[in-house]
Amino acid sequence: MIKLGILGYGNLGRGVENAVKINPDTELCAIFTRRNPSDVKVNSNTKVVSVDEIEEWKNKIDVLILCGGSAVDLPVQTPKYAKLFNVIDSFDTHAKIPEHYKNVDTSAKSASKTAIISVGWDPGLFSLNRMYANAILPDGCDYTFWGRGVSQGHSDAIRRIEGVKDARQYTVPVEEALIQARSGKNPQLTTRQKHKRECYVVLKEGADAKRVESEIVNMPNYFADYDTTVNFISEEELKKNHSAIPHGGFVLRSGKTSPNTNHIIEYSLKLDSNPEFTSSVLIAYARAALRLNKEGVYGCKTVFDVAPAYLSPKTNEELISTML
Amino acid sequence: MIKLGILGYGNLGRGVENAVKINPDTELCAIFTRRNPSDVKVNSNTKVVSVDEIEEWKNKIDVLILCGGSAVDLPVQTPKYAKLFNVIDSFDTHAKIPEHYKNVDTSAKSASKTAIISVGWDPGLFSLNRMYANAILPDGCDYTFWGRGVSQGHSDAIRRIEGVKDARQYTVPVEEALIQARSGKNPQLTTRQKHKRECYVVLKEGADAKRVESEIVNMPNYFADYDTTVNFISEEELKKNHSAIPHGGFVLRSGKTSPNTNHIIEYSLKLDSNPEFTSSVLIAYARAALRLNKEGVYGCKTVFDVAPAYLSPKTNEELISTML
Lengths: 324, 324
Prior knowledge:
The structure is a homodimer.
Chain A: E1 2-7, H1 11-20, E2 26-33, E3 47-50, E4 63-66, H2 73-81, E5 86-88, H3 97-110, E6 114-116, H4 125-136, E7 140-146, E8 149-150, H5 152-159, E9 164-173, H6 175-181, H7 191-194, E10 195-203, H8 209-217, E11 227-232, H9 235-241, E12 247-258, E13 261-271, H10 274-294, E14 299-301, H11 316-322
Parallel strand pairs in A: 1-2, 1-4, 2-3, 4-5, 5-6, 6-14, 10-11
Antiparallel strand pairs in A: 7-12, 8-9, 9-10, 12-13
């Protein structure tokens, strides 16, 4: 049994708690929280423990899964806890990964621990598919499309506008752009051509819908470069039709092996729940982290460094006879 | 530079010769043949060498890529040459892989060489995607669809029928079955529901078309379990419209993380040339074999055992900053 701990009990933490139930070689030993443990109601019989006591669990847990946010939590937590545990995180601030990698690597090596960072689907499975496809088709073009799915960051940006009570934003890949990417003609596609943004907004009483719409569609970085549609709906409708957190997307590489010979490699995900799926990826890599650690492979790793077989509970013989 | 050799100069051998040109960290040092070397015309300046002299190249080649067939050539060649070289093959007789693995492993270990077997797209990239998807979604169903593409084995089977001058068979996934597999309802699909077979046949003069058609559609294993259409065409039309060797397919896993939460992972390939693409996969794994060998990892490996980063000519830092 792989003994797991969770630090942070939001959507992702609940997802990991849930994923343990469908992975019979894993057990969840503790959920660590910065809150008062008695205030945290969990969906299993798992012990809730104050993070102040985490060091006492040093030898009781094989892998600690860090379920905090990339902005503030993980840059501190992953290097810190890699000195005590094998750790997995889903750090997704792409530009800061090299720095994060270095910090985690130093910590993990100092304690002979194994850390795998930026695990999930993007970064994570999408990264893997970009990498495999580039290694196989060196002469080609990459395309990544996200959606249809809820973007938490864009939903939050709308919620910060005056007069907005609640909001949900969907990132939607443009079908025509997908068709072009699959055509083998290797087109250059602009931001606007690739994705559109759909917003569902609940207004506060008396708020000016015209002004709110204008502030959304003109918001720099978030919406100004996209075709954005804004739908005003009631709070009831938002709860009823927009409470799920679906996501997904497409990674394509289109490349030539000779002048008139093109190939398309496409990977896609259609996820009913972004956090539940991400959690399942985290569990698979937790399995890998423990195995690597047992083999004496210490320090910080990414999905690129982990041989696929390490993710599976099956033996080498089973994998060869059933999956190869 | 990675020094490569090829044994066998058919479609696959020519594909590897071609792929070396778009992989600047590789060079092709020799093409080994069982034929008289002066009878083999190649598409590069590569030296053609009789296989009888292959042992002299023991220290001049980093990886030997075996481009023979799975039925007769590879079961003998891969174990034999793994005693002299690091080797890659595309052995694809699924049922016999465990036995082949064992033979190659013994040979390679005895000589401190590294062998990677069953490399290509199925087995190969499709296997990887089945494995990753199963590790992430343990509770689900797998679907593999092949095509639209030319099946060499089925084309050969038609050619063996009396009265047939030439033939080309396409394996075609049934669109409705793909839609069902993607629905999240995890349907059971029969052989007939998943694929249909399209045959283009050139008859010898005076041959009985009715009899030939009947022999094709009723042929056990190859056609009897499928909806098969037979089109009789002229030799000119076959040459003009059916001389390419496209292929591809789809690997799907549909799985749940909780009772009402389903996810679809889909991987697909659309290949203008099956042998050119397969060759590109072989080159990437040749790069990996050499690296593993330099690290002292000996014996027989499959795609499951190879960390993705080993396939890429990029450094770890480049991979993290550009692909993660």
